[in-house]
Design a protein that fits this description.
There is one protein chain. It is built from ten helices and 22 strands. It is α/β, with parallel strands linked by helices and 383 residues long. It folds into two domains: 90-176, Pdz3 Domain, CATH 2.30.42.10; 181-380, 2-enoyl-CoA Hydratase, Chain A, domain 1 (Alpha-Beta Complex). The strands form five sheets. Strands 2, 3, 16, 17, 20 and 21 form a six-stranded mixed sheet that branches. Helix 6 (202-215) runs parallel beside helix 7 and helix 7 packs parallel to helix 8 (284-294). The longest helix is centred in the N-terminal third of the chain and has 14 residues, at 52-65. Mean pLDDT is 89; it is low at 1-19 and 21-25.
Length: 383
């Protein structure tokens, strides 16, 4: 199943909150010999025009990729600015999540409810081919999203393809906050909280959603963290602290050997719970399910998770670009590493790829979602 590529590259981490500025001068000069030699050769012999900024971005990305760590990543200066917005769940833009197609155009994966794109009639599954008259197939993904995003209060003219129909429309760019957690009642006493990510405002919105559902009569809860790419450790631990009794929550070990254990207090939510996961429940999301499972606080329903056990620190470089580097590992409350193992749900419910995307796009009501139905059945039989 293809991986989801968010509009602004999601960082699949239980992340540390602050960035660190890194001075390139810390690298010994002799270690740069090959790169200096290559740069001199290209500068002297290459027949084409040289975009050194693009070349350096590619070289930096290649160096990080060469570490062989799937969780470390490089971001250009432009993407880093978008990343900071994303981690706050607040954006200036038109309100869409996209992926790049093989033909270079852009698939609209998700449309933010109430955002300018939705109001303009854009739907998940639409294809964007041009922005302000520029053929997006001729641009990189960063360039395309940069044109679409723009400045607050301005408009972008988008060319949209839906099936055999193509049309143009102007969409206004706005500042808006993305809903992180939302709740709905499924039955008379079962509520479901959907957590989109563990970035900014996650804990507050999740706890608000829980308490709202309980005010509506919920006595049992389902947490949906399917397709949740992770986020901040502080947000994750705040939600777990609200749900779980006294004890360890999150165990960290840093590159220098420093260890840390985040703890929960004695207050907890003592009601039957279930949590939905899938292959796109990553980092903080799968950790959330693992912690609830280890405390025997919730039944895990869905499909196998990916298995991530490293956390990243974001270092900003002198040119405004940044690297997210794996600087430590974490384990569950019981000291179990999820690395390359993940979580096998207590109740495994597979869905085919077509249904997966229908669920992801929000085109399937919960009554047609076999994983939600399985969780409801678990809770209906729970005391």
């Amino acid at each position: 199943m293809k991986k989801l590529m968010k509009f602004m590259s999601y960082v699949l981490v239980a992340a540390l909150a602050s960035a660190v500025t890194f001075a390139a001068a810390n690298v010994p000069r002799e270690d740069n010999a090959k790169l200096d030699e290559l740069r001199a050769l290209v500068d002297e012999k290459f027949i084409g025009e040289i975009d050194w900024k693009a070349a350096e971005d590619s070289a930096a990305a290649g160096m990080v990729a060469g570490l062989g760590d799937r969780w470390s990543y490089y971001m250009s200066a432009e993407r880093y600015d978008s990343y900071l917005e994303q981690m706050n769940n607040a954006y200036v833009g038109v309100g869409i999540t996209v992926t790049e197609r093989e033909d270079g155009y852009i698939d609209v994966v998700e449309v933010v409810r109430g955002g300018p794109a939705e109001r303009a009639g854009i739907e998940a599954g639409d294809i964007l081919t041009h922005a302000d008259g520029i053929d997006l197939a001729t641009l990189t993904m960063d360039e395309s999203t940069g044109i679409i995003k723009g400045e607050e209060g301005t408009t972008v003219r988008l060319t949209i393809r839906r099936g055999e129909i193509t049309w143009e429309m102007d969409v206004r760019r706005e500042f808006f906050e993305v809903t992180v957690a939302s709740g709905q009642m499924l039955t008379e006493d079962i509520g479901m909280v959907t957590i989109e990510n563990f970035d900014g405002r996650c804990a507050d919105e999740t706890i608000d959603a829980i308490e709202s559902l309980m005010d509506q009569g919920a006595k049992k809860l389902i947490f949906d963290v399917r397709n949740n790419p992770g986020g901040y450790k502080r947000e994750l631990c705040a939600v777990l602290d609200y749900l779980l009794p006294e004890g360890p929550l999150f165990r960290s070990e840093y590159y220098d050997g420093t260890e840390q254990v985040d703890e929960s207090d004695a207050d907890c939510l003592d009601i039957p719970m279930a949590v939905l996961v899938n292959s796109e429940s990553i980092s903080a999301a799968e950790f959330f399910a693992a912690a609830l499972d280890e405390y025997e606080a919730a039944t895990v329903v869905g499909t196998q998770t990916i298995g991530k056990g490293y956390f990243q620190q974001t270092y900003r470089l002198s040119d405004g670009s940044a690297v997210g580097l794996s600087v430590g590992k974490y384990t569950t409350p019981n000291g179990v590493s999820l690395t390359d193992v993940g979580i096998t749900p207590d109740v495994v419910v597979e869905v085919d790829e077509e249904l997966f995307w229908q669920i992801y796009y929000g085109n399937v009501d919960w009554t047609g979602d076999p994983q939600v139905l399985a969780a409801v059945e678990v809770l209906e039989n729970a005391e």
